[in-house]
Amino acid sequence: MSPTVSKAVAPRRSLRQRVARLAAILAGAAIVTVLTLNVGLAWLLVETMTHPPCREPVPLAGQPAPEEHWLPTADGHQIRVWYYPSRNGAVVLTFGGMDGALGDRLPPVAFLLAAGYGVVQVDTRACARPPAPVTQGYNELYDGEAALDFALARPEVEADRVGALGFSMGGATALRLAAQRAEVRAVVRDGGFACLGRLLSPAAGDGWATRVHKDTILLLYRWRAHIDPWAVCPVDDLAAIAPRPVLLIYGEHEVACGLAQVREAGDHVQLWLVPGGDHGRNHIVAPAAFRQRVLAFFGEAFWGR
Description:
eight-stranded mixed sheet, Rossmann fold, 10 helices
C-alpha cells in the first residue's frame, strides 16, 4: 500500500472511532438519565404514600366541638381521635385517606351525627406521637383497635352497635379491623384498592419500562413503609368478616376495584355502584342517596330496621 493511501485510511478510521465513542457515551448518559428519572419518580410516589405531611384538620362546620383524645397504640405510638358522643347508643369509627379522618375530611360524618350516631374520627399516622409511616391500612390496624377499645369503654355506647366507615385506604383499615375484631358489627367502605400488592405490581401486558418502574416502586415501598404491600389486601379480609354485613360503595369510574372484591366475597357483601361517581366524589355526585344508603345499612345492622 502506498503511503498516500495509508494516510487517507487512518483519518477515516480515527473518525469512526470517535463517532462510536461519542455514541457509546450518549447511550450511557441516556441510560443513566432514564434510570435516574425512574428512581426519582418512584421515590416521589412512595414518599407521598408513606410519609405525607401532617396537616392540621379543619373542624366540622355547624357541629359542637368534639372531644380530643390521644390513644396509645399497641405498637408504641399515640394516635389522635376526635369523638362526638353518641345519642342513640351506636357509634361509627371513621378512617380516612393519607390525611386521616378528622374534622371535615373524608369520609363525611355530619349526616351520622344528625341521626344521633356517635362518631370516632381517627387521625393519620403522619400526625401520631411520634410520627410513623402511613402503611395504607396495615399498621393502621393498631389505630383502629385503639379507637375501638376507646368506643367500647364509653358508657353511652352499646357494645353490639359499633360500626366502621372508611374512605380509600381508610376502608382497608376498617375491613382489616373488622376481620380481627368481631365487636365491629358492620362496615362501609367508600372506594379504594382491592389489594395493594396487586395495585403496585406489574400487570400482564405492561411494557418493559412500566415493569421496571413498578418493580422499583415495590422495592422502595418495602423499604420506606417497612411492610410487604401484598399483606394489605382488603379483598382477603372480607371472608373473615362474614356473616357481618359489608357495604362497598364505588363510583362507575373505579368500578373494577369494587367488582374485584365482590367476586371473591359472599352474600354478606353488598356493592353499590354510583352512576357518575369517582374516587372521593360519590357523596358529592349522589349526596341524598349516599346518606340514605349508609343510614339504612347501619340501621339494619344495629336495629334490624
